[in-house]
Amino acid sequence: MKRMNLIRAALFAVFAFMGTVSLSAQNWLPAPAAIPVIQNELQLLNQVPVPSPGTLMTSSQQVSDQYAKSGCPDCTLKSIKVRMLEMSAEQIKQGVDTGTAVQDVRAQMIVGAANNAVLLTNISASYNYMQSILQ
What we know:
It is a single chain. By secondary structure, the protein is mainly alpha-helical. The chain has one domain (30-134). It is built from six helices and no strands. The protein is globular, with a radius of gyration of 18 Å.
């Protein structure tokens, strides 16, 4: 009897989690509406020049290394926002729905951050930013 209750509790937890994921995916803008928002945000972010080093790195570790040398903490956040927008747009254009694309990009960036606390904080802030503009 205890075993059945544990199985039922486990199934309930799985279905509750799946429902939460499903509901969160419903809040994101559809792809046709998300792409113009992303393009607009990229234009806004690119209007303000990035202080040195000024180049967009391809990996989170490169971003961390380069900006740590220049002492520009806002540069890291801006660079991560730009990269998250670009990578999300690429996936959305390939047919991935908006919420899945943003969450996938976030997961990729977290892996690339290699437990760097500063990068993880900026990735979290960038994800919150993506939610604010695309939900």
